[in-house]
Structure formats: C-alpha cells, structure tokens
Amino acid sequence: ILGESKKYFEKSEGAFDVTIKPMMTLWGFYRKRDKMPSEEEISETHRKIGFNKLLFDENKKSVFFTNPDMAVDFGGIVKGYAVDRALAKIAEKGVKSGFVNLGGNIRTLPDPPPDKNFYNIGIKDPLNKEAICALAKITGSKALATSGNYERYVILDNKHITHIINPSDGHPIENMLSVTVVAPLAITADALSTSVFIKG
C-alpha cells in the first residue's frame, strides 16, 4: 500500500499524501478538540508531513521516517485496495456478475446483472443523505469511489471541517462537496477521488 501511495503522491503532484496523519490529529480527527488550531500550530505540524520525507529501502523492504513525529493514514487508499483484493478472490471462483462495495468504494465484475446492460450505481447527494444526485451506468469491470465532505467531519468554532486536508498548506478543503471517480481499479478510484477533491 505504501508503494501504491507513492505512485499516487507523484501522479497527483503531492495532493494525495498518506503522511497527512499528524495534520488530521491536529484538526481533531483522532483526539477531540473544540476550537480551530492556530496558524502557528498548523505551521509546526506541517513539518511532520510530506511523502518525500519517507526513505524507502527496496532491498530491506523497509521505510524510514526522517522526522520521528511522522505518521501515516491510509484512509484515502486502503478501502480501494481491499475492494480490488476481494474482487480478485471472487473472480478466482468463476463468479462473473456482481460487485464489491466497501463504504462507497465499489468495483463491478465483468457481466451486468441478469436482464441488464449495465450496473446502475447511485451517487449520494452530498446535501441530502437520503437522496442520490446522479446515476453512474457502469459496463464491464470498473471501479467507482466518492470522496465527500459529509461522511467524516468535525465541528470547530461552529464550523463544519471536512477530514480531507490539503497537504500543501495543512488546511481542510473548503468549497468542495463531493467528487466521484470511475477508474479500472478501486485503488485508483479511491486515491484519485481524494486527489481531485483537494486539487479541484
């Protein structure tokens, strides 16, 4: 997963960065806080993130944190990875129709449901959890992932703060509701939906 994370870090020009965990902790996603962090706290924490600060040793199969306070959060990629692994196991059994859904990370098998030409996948309306805002018509084996500001968030100083944080400045993304990506693999859709949410 670290190897895949490195690939999407580079592909997204740094927007997808699993070393974001210290910043998520600062903003209250691992320990509760009631008020916004100061710019000084953000700046201090920013020194602890950055995928390019990880040193890989392919021979030893090891990774070294150049800052001892670094930490990783695979939340933006691990569900996609798990969906791809699960689908591969199902396909090994000869199953041709169906899909795997892990918390909105979906990947379909090649054949559509009986008497259908495609899979009809609803995309949740970010402004109304009980409704869908669009339908994706998926043919063949493809993956779909959505990143939104409505699933995981905190309230600080009476403000809704999304868990998707821009690694370049340490601030949660504003003015973005939801991004859905369709891709050949679930790991790709998962990582790129986060990347596009951050980069716009």
In short:
The protein has 200 residues and is an alpha+beta fold. It has 5 helices and 10 strands.
Overall strand count: 10
Supply Rg.
18 Å
Low-confidence runs: none
Q: How would you classify the helix and strand content by structural class?
A: alpha+beta
Mean pLDDT: 93
State the separation between the terminal residues, measured CA to CA.
Answer: 25 Å
What order do the strands of the largest sheet run in, or round the barrel if closed?
Answer: 3-4-7-10
Percentage of residues assigned to helices: 25-40%
H/E element order: HHHEEHEEEEEEEEH
Shape: globular
Strand percent estimate: 25-35%
The DSSP helix count reads 5
For the biggest sheet, the summary is: 4 strands, antiparallel
Features:
200 residues, alpha+beta, four-stranded antiparallel β-sheet, two-stranded antiparallel sheet, 10 strands
